[in-house]
């Protein structure tokens, strides 16, 4: 079973720690929501887990190996990243962009084998963008482009998928559809999908576990049921309170 573990991880930048003593133990086959207030360190944590940023202390281990000592190609075969801001792609169609996910396996100038092409087609089908294969990426809606970037990550065939705000800028329908897609991706095999979001209700409804960045810079993780009280503490203040029924924030009366 695939496993992501951190040991005494300290996360930050410029020598300044934001998160302290992060201890995670997350298994494949799970959809895990990363929650926390704006500026709490969620993106910095994701960047550290993906090895885009070095930890200030401790380590990140994927299946027993430190992600920060893997070479770029080996790491790309294990870890795929989808950012909240979908880049403008110029004159690229959907199939071409999704095929870029095979680069860790073919090399930058390697051609796609029949097996690679099959993985690209399957990734587009799984992400629900196969019917858009010949469309220019820059002509897609926000939801379609987000699905295309997910398809690219699926084509990468990495067992660890890290996503920073995949629901950002999407309407209610697209948010629900993308969340259901992520749930299917995680549950279809032994892939671990860890994503950050501000949509507490959807996260608690569809995720298997929660990683919560707390106001004091420590990180808690556990089941969605166990998370309720911790979320209430992290998000409630003098003006708003977490409502366990609606699973959202409500103004205090």
Would you mind describing this structure in some detail?
The chain is globular and about 55 Å long. Helix 5 runs antiparallel to helix 6 (142-155). With 253 residues, it is α/β, with parallel strands linked by helices. It is built from 9 helices and 13 strands. A hairpin with a 2-residue loop joins strand 5 (57-62) and strand 6. The model has no long low-confidence stretch (mean pLDDT 91). The termini are far apart.
Provide the descriptors you would attach to this structure in a database record.
9 helices, 2 domains, alpha/beta, Rossmann fold
List the topology elements.
Layout: E1 3-13, E2 16-22, E3 25-27, E4 31-35, H1 42-49, E5 57-62, E6 65-66, H2 72-76, E7 79-82, H3 94-99, H4 103-106, H5 114-127, H6 142-155, E8 160-163, H7 172-187, E9 192-196, H8 200-206, E10 209-213, E11 219-223, H9 224-235, E12 240-243, E13 248-251
Parallel strand pairs: 4-9, 4-10, 7-8, 8-9
Antiparallel strand pairs: 1-2, 1-3, 1-5, 5-6, 10-11, 12-13
Helix pairs in contact: 5-6
Q: How many helical stretches?
A: 9
- Biggest sheet strand order reads 7-8-9-4-10-11
In the CATH hierarchy, what is the superfamily of the largest domain?
Answer: P-loop containing nucleotide triphosphate hydrolases
Q: Which stretches are poorly predicted, pLDDT < 50 over at least 5 residues?
A: none
The fraction of residues assigned to DSSP E strands is: 25-35%
The strand count comes to 13
Q: What is the CATH top level name of the largest domain?
A: Alpha Beta
Give me the strand/helix succession.
EEEEHEEHEHHHHEHEHEEHEE
**Main β-sheet description:** 6 strands, mixed
Shape: globular
The helix content is 25-40%
Mean pLDDT: 91
């Amino acid at each position: 079973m695939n496993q992501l573990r951190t040991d005494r991880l300290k996360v930050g930048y410029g020598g300044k720690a934001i998160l302290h003593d992060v201890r995670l133990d997350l298994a494949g086959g799970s959809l895990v929501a990363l929650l926390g207030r704006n500026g709490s360190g969620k993106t910095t944590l994701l960047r550290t887990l993906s090895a885009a940023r070095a930890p200030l202390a401790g380590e990140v281990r994927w299946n027993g190996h430190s992600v920060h000592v893997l070479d770029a190609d080996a790491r790309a075969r294990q870890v795929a990243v989808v950012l909240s801001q979908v880049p403008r792609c110029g004159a690229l169609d959907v199939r071409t962009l999704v095929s870029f996910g095979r680069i860790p396996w073919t090399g930058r100038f390697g051609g796609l084998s029949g097996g690679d092409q099959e993985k690209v087609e399957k990734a587009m089908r799984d992400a629900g963008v196969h019917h858009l294969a010949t469309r220019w990426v820059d002509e897609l809606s926000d939801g379609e482009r987000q699905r295309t970037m997910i398809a690219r990550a699926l084509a990468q065939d990495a067992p660890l998928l890290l996503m920073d705000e995949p629901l950002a800028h999407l309407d209610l329908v697209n948010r629900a559809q993308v969340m259901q897609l992520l749930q299917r991706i995680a549950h279809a095999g032994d892939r671990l999908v860890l994503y950050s979001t501000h949509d507490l209700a959807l996260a608690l409804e569809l995720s298997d576990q929660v990683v919560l960045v707390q106001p004091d810079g420590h990180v808690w993780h556990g089941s969605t049921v166990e998370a309720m009280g911790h979320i209430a503490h992290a998000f409630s203040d003098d003006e708003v309170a977490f409502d366990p029924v609606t699973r959202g924030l409500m103004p205090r009366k």
